[in-house]
Design goal:
By secondary structure, the protein is of the alpha/beta class. It has one domain: 3-Layer(aba) Sandwich (Rossmann fold), CATH 3.40.50.300. An eight-stranded mixed sheet has the order 3-4-2-5-1-6-7-8, with helices on both faces. Helix 2 crosses helix 10. The longest helix has 21 residues.
Length: 291
Amino acid sequence: MISQTEQLRAFVGTRTADPWRASDDRVLVIAGARGGTGTSTVAAGIACTAAAEGRRTLLVDADEANGTHHHRFGVIATSGIGALKPGGSDPASAVLHLGTTLHLLPGGSGQAMDGALGMPFAPAERRSVFRRLAPVYRGYDVVVIDAGSRIDAVIAAGLNGLRKCVITSGAEPASVAAAYAMVKGIHLTWPGAPVELVLTRTGDDRARDAFAEVQGAAGRFLGRTIGFGGVIPDDDTLQTAITAGTPLSVASGGTRAAMALDALAGRLLAELDRDARRSMAPYRPTGRPAA
């Protein structure tokens, strides 16, 4: 398996920096420092909170090969992001209505789906798919993209602009190193793009230490700050329910992780509302610090 650091080296070697621009749509990209850091749970939790507040919300599962969100919500996906290659399905037709305000664009199921066989996208295909999706976003108040832990997928997800990238990470050394690699990849692509780090499945003290390590490296080598998004505690009750196939909206009720997710989502949504009232002039970088 290619490590996050190896992915970053390969990615940075082919990239040129572009000024970050805030999306006209309220797009939040959720990225994982590495697999298993709760990225999908965080993305789904934010989307559920936004929908519960009455916001028309689209949750995008960007895993074209083996998406999980249709399982989390107990629905059958007959189409999904894997079918949106050029010449494929109409993007809007692949969206599932999970309720009055919550909609889902599923990921791949690993099986035949509207002519798509759950095969990974080539980089150009992934970029094309997200360009095709951009017009769909305009029908929603909030778009939450679960971009996974591949740096190229995260960058493709933010191709049309984003308001913030939230990185989920564990507190163990490998996750901390991968979190910095993700921050660096985003920064070298869009200098100035807002990024915050959410620590998962750990305690407050260790989370603060892990955040300080990532922030210290970002300040020293990139000349930038990142935000502390808080801690989502390890929660056996929630994980057991999800593993058993209980829909997230039912499984999360009243659990410690759910309350932390709700607090995170509430803050992010309030920031979206506040930023929408400001001028969204694009960031103009003055230079890139040496890595």
